[in-house]
Amino acid sequence: MLKKTLISAIALAGGTAAFTGQAQAADLTISCGAVGAELQLCQEGVAAWEAKTGHEVDIVSTPNSSTERLSLYQQILSAQSSDIDVMQIDVVWPGLLGNHLLDLNETLGEEAAAGHFDAIISNNTVDGRLVAMPWFTDAGVLYYRKDLLEKHGFAPPETWQEMTDIAAAIQAAEREAGDKMWGYVFQGRAYEGLTCNALEWVASHGGGTIVDAEGEITIDNERAAAALDLAATWIGDISPNGVLNYTEEEARGVFQTGNAVFMRNWPYAWSLAQSEESEVAGKVGVVKLPHGPDGESAATLGGWNLAVSKYSENPELAADLVAFLTGEAEQKRRAIEGAYNPTLAALYEDEEVLAAVPFFGTLYATFTNAVARPSAPTGDNYGRVSNGFFNAVHNVLSGNQSGAEAVSQLDSELSRIKRRRW
Ligand code: GLC
Fold it and tell me: What is the value of pTM for the model shown?
């Protein structure tokens, strides 16, 4: 049964979650994301486990914004509610939620994580406890319209400045022909996705990662400021003003209906852009993101894991579902059907996977060298650090502050949060 605590937590989180399972006495409840084809893929995977084991599972879909999902989970877990057994958790949350999650090495054995990328396993290990199994990894990539770049005589951009110039030129030419074209769409809403985009701008200008691996606050520097100032010039010029409220799906909507030259997004957008419903199927290329004048391309490391709540009444069964969904067969299916990056290195050599998503091969280094958000050094404070960062960036994009003012003010704010140590 779905109990009151969960329902009130969802109401508090803005009422955006929906129940898709039958609210009857199922054996387990899992919460899945619902971005793009995510929910459908989760339903299919769960159905396969149900058929194999004879158990019944309810599926709860959660808000698309990672920031909103986190507050929902924090409410459910701090109430010690047993309503959700298996939770899909973001790669930046193990430190924030780890105390409420089961050690999967205890339930699934010491070899549970064999074959998965080491960096994700160490990210998911909190105080020696494996609090989540890797499900898929993510890194930001640049989508572009192959047909339009070719038509107007451009190669994919290497630097942000080239991207800006090409976007402006193609946008102007296509609009003359009567199209409502935009140059660049990305995730500009004040939420976790903007932290990911802006970290890419800053890191690829050589401006660091907000807080470094030792916990030093590094954001107040000229390169970071310059990166944000360049991004601010995009708004209302090559990017619609509405981008200030875009998450992944709004950006994909504009690109997939043929109304943008470039898009920053995660790999999942590939399968949908190539699908029958897409206006741009067959016209899309994917390359690594551009870089600043003296920097190197940087892709923010994203990804999602499956964890079992400590308050589950069926922890062993829940862990079995997690092992099944994160296992090789499911990861392969999700890679082929949804372009979800496997966390098992071997699948990047699988011919069927590479045929479905060729850039899993060409951009392999982008995925394995992606830049982490500073969730490990800032621990419990990561949520506040990210909130401070995306609000500061949003201010610059909105024209309320210069890059230099924003990074200096953010430095003071982060110092107050940190005090002597994180
Ligand atoms: C993607 C990433 C996740 C990130 C989120 C931000 O879902 O996988 O790590 O936090 O986007 O919007």
Answer: 0.94
